[in-house]
Design a protein that fits this description.
about 280 residues, Porin, twelve-stranded antiparallel beta barrel, 4 helices
Length: about 280
């Protein structure tokens, strides 16, 4: 069985809720903990929208893992029959990302993400200055990262910015994220800027108790080839897991990749994210 088919099978198995045997009571929901960062956040169930970071806090000494999967067959290639023959892209290759993050202290998290396309490794950190759940009017996280292609050997691109969020009760949240990315112009194109200023715009809307609609777009200034990267998704929260089915106009996962834009405005690719919190 091919890699993409195995990945999708695992996704479907993970999305299948556990079966409660006859005569047994469902497992009760966990009670709130002494650490508020460990309590479920219905408006921000994950540390990312599709690619952009959120302001969800990671508890001290706890961790989270995420898998990103982007199929490389465009949904617009050929007619519907061709697309169905390829199982809507699932028969083709994919770009896979693996991410791990760890809570260093209250409000401070760090991690790394590796994507398979150009073997990019990104080291990132985030410090939450404001926390809406603690009474602040908004959430505010300071973002810093550095990434490099070819397993961090080439084209290092540092980035610095902020993630600003506003939660609406338990119904979702909106985000504005200005980020400066240096050395985004990895091709050294003549006449082009070397750095990008991207402004991530995103939202997550809770449409059912554990189901969300998600969207994001990343307009850019400075070095801004191609089209602005955009994604939308539907996702399901199940305990410490979040399962997301998404469609994007590019393959960007890291801040540097988002600064380089998508492939085109009318070329879209199927993908999914799976995340797991360990706390």
């Amino acid at each position: 069985m091919s890699g993409p088919r195995v990945a999708v099978l695992l996704l479907l198995l993970a999305l299948t809720p556990g079966v409660v045997q006859a005569g047994q009571n469902p497992v009760p929901a966990p009670a709130p903990s002494d650490d508020a960062d460990r309590d479920p956040n219905a408006s921000q169930p994950d540390f990312a929208l599709v690619n952009l970071p959120t302001t969800l806090r990671l508890p001290r000494f706890k961790s989270a893992f995420r898998v990103t999967h982007r199929f490389t067959r465009s949904l617009g290639d050929g007619d519907f029959g061709d697309l169905a023959d390829d199982l809507f892209g699932l028969d083709n290759g994919a770009i896979i990302g693996l991410e791990y993050r760890f809570g260093l202290m209250s409000g401070l998290q760090a991690g790394l993400l590796r994507t398979s396309g150009d073997k990019t490794i990104e080291f990132f950190g985030q410090y939450n200055v404001l926390n809406q759940r603690s009474g602040d009017p908004v959430g505010l996280g300071v973002l810093v990262s550095v990434e490099g292609m070819n397993n961090f050997r080439d084209h290092h691109a540092p980035a610095f910015g902020v993630a600003l969020s506003r939660e609406f009760g338990e119904y979702g949240a909106v985000y504005v994220e200005p980020v400066w990315v240096h050395n985004a112009n990895v091709l050294d194109l003549p006449g082009e800027d070397n750095s990008s200023l991207l402004v991530g715009l995103g939202a997550r809307v809770r449409v059912r108790p554990t189901v969300y609609l998600v969207g994001e777009v990343t307009p850019r200034a400075g070095y801004s080839p191609g089209t602005h990267h955009g994604s939308f998704a539907v996702e399901k929260r199940a305990g410490g897991h979040v399962f997301q089915l998404n469609v994007s106009n590019g393959f960007g996962n890291t801040l540097g990749q988002l600064a380089r834009g998508g492939t085109s405005s009318d070329t879209w690719y199927l993908g999914f994210n799976i995340s797991r919190k360990f706390f």
